[in-house]
Amino acid sequence: MPIRTSSRAALAIFPVLWLIAQPAGAQMLPPPENVVSLNASATVEVPRDWLSVTLSTSREGPEAAGVQTQLKQALDAALAEARKVARPGELEVSGGNFSLHPRYTPKGGTNGWTGSTELLVQGRDMTAIAQLTGRIQTLTIARLNYSLSRAAQERVEADVTAQAVARFRTKADQTARLFGFTGYLLREVQLGGNEPSGGYVPMAMKVRSAGAPMADEALPVEAGKASVTVSVNGSIQLTK
Asked: Could you identify which of 18, 73, 110, 187 might form a hypothetical disulfide with 102, taking C-beta atoms 3.0 to 4.6 angstroms apart as the criterion?
């Protein structure tokens, strides 16, 4: 025979079941009394140690296959020169964007093909990268960017995080004393950081003429500095 339970009985049983379902050893936070929200941050400026140079070229012609062949030859020649000095972390080489599309007339018809290709050279050895770009004859510099390497950013973030946390703790101690309390409990905390922006250098470089000295194509060598910021946001409960 099925057992029927009244709605009152069901409501009475539910809190007991809910308590049983809680994980063993779970702790309930104290009531939100004397809770203060705080934030602190720290910023450090460090020299950018990573240089990225994008070289590119474009070609036009009546046939797609001919344009593609010309682009491939230009890129292969640049890659051959770059691979002679490539070193992991110091000078790295990789292909960039490649595009090939029809060229349209004002009346909507096609009038040949146009395309472009890129080569990305990047690394910590800025002198070697500058010298390499001077030796590449089939591509010209399109974009230049100074930034922080991943290793440098991780190293700096560790130091900045320690500074930000120390400032948060100092502010928490001061806040407790100002309100007449002797200490505090940390209720919650969040750490956040910024992504250092790169230093883009606008390039307006002339086409290298045959036999032009490499010095005429020297790259800007002022990398500048990047700002690394870490913020700490959280709340504390003041205690007697």
From this structure: 110
The confidence score (pLDDT) of residue 174 equals: 96
DSSP class of 215: G
What is the per-residue pLDDT for 189?
Answer: 93
For 111-129, write each residue's pLDDT tens digit: 899 999 999 999 999 999 9
Res 161 pLDDT > 90: yes
pLDDT in tens, 46-98: 999 999 999 999 999 999 999 999 999 999 999 999 999 999 999 999 988 99
Name the nearest CA neighbour of 205 among 163, 125, 144, 115. Answer: 144
DSSP run (H or E) holding 146: strand 140-147
Whether the CB-CB separation of 130 and 162 falls below 8 Å is answered with no
* Integer Cα distance of 147 and 201 in angstroms: 11
∠ CA 138-144-147, nearest 5°, is 140
Q: How many C-beta atoms surround the C-beta of residue 130 within 10 A? A: 18
CA distance 101 to 133: 27
Strand order in the sheet with 50-61: 92-104, 110-123, 50-61, 140-147, 199-201
- Give dist(CA 87, CA 132) in Å, integer: 13
The two tokens of residue 223 are 């990398």
What would the two tokens of residue 93 be?
A: 């080489």
Among 150-164, 167-181, 200-214, the range scoring the smallest mean pLDDT is 200-214
